[in-house]
């Protein structure tokens, strides 16, 4: 199977129907094997999964550098999305955000060097910086587009007011945010706004940080350094309640002879049609096996009854625990 391309927003950006989140290749979910990560990136290109998502803070810096090495001689075959906005000094992430225009310009130069490219296809502000007007951010990115260093502008985890304000200064092509069967906070306000403004949605963690694959364990069973060890939804009574809620995903997958994670991705792809917006999920993996499983989800059809059953089983009231700890939630612009 070779993925088809899909428009993302109304500004002309074309990407593969499913993307590849690359963060896990830099040890956010346990140790990574660089050889397998690069093989996964090359396999993604072969299968037409060419929308690659990274960020300067992944590592920090090491994830972009990995892509730069892996894409040598293949740059024109992919669409690269990266992000700026966190404070990084001497290769370490510091507390807080920094989206001052001068910092954006410096961050982009660093990303271009690590990615070994002369342009970034989609540049996101990683988190809204409360100290910098979003109009200044949009203006700075617009200048980078005019210079040919960036092609399209995106926001990550931005709220409705800031999306609207940014878009008024320079068109936003995509908003990246967590959205999946078990995280539906975008539905009341953000998704209708994206439809109104012609902005695409790029859901990260579309498999619930692995929970919706059915291959999960309690937080304490993951090694130190694995994100899931500190994920509230993997802990204690939250874990038990969420396993019960996710049973419907497993049941539908079993009936269809497919994987639970594939059903979760198919649900997302069907939602885009239902909402009338462009949705391109970016499931993350560092292994070819899971990449191939994720891509195969585009062929799975869910009927109205199955969609309704999934909506009900994993309604927000059925999911236990916040999606981030207190520090992470404080950085989400809602």
Helix content: 25-40%
Within the CATH hierarchy, at the fold level, what is the topology? TIM Barrel
SS-based class: alpha/beta
Biggest β-sheet: count, sense, barrel? 7 strands, parallel
How much of the sequence lies in strands comes to 15-25%
Low-confidence stretches: none
How many structural domains in the coordinates?
Answer: 1
Could you describe the 3D structure shown?
The protein has 334 residues and is α/β, with parallel strands linked by helices. The protein has a single domain (5-210, 261-301), classed as TIM Barrel. The chain is built from 12 helices and 11 strands. A 7-stranded parallel β-sheet has the order 3-4-5-8-9-10-11, with helices on one face. Strands 1-2 form a two-stranded antiparallel ribbon. The chain has a two-stranded antiparallel sheet with strand order 6-7. Helix 1 (34-46) crosses helix 2, helix 2 (62-70) packs parallel to helix 3 and helix 8 (247-256) packs antiparallel against helix 11 (304-313). The model has no long low-confidence stretch (mean pLDDT 96).
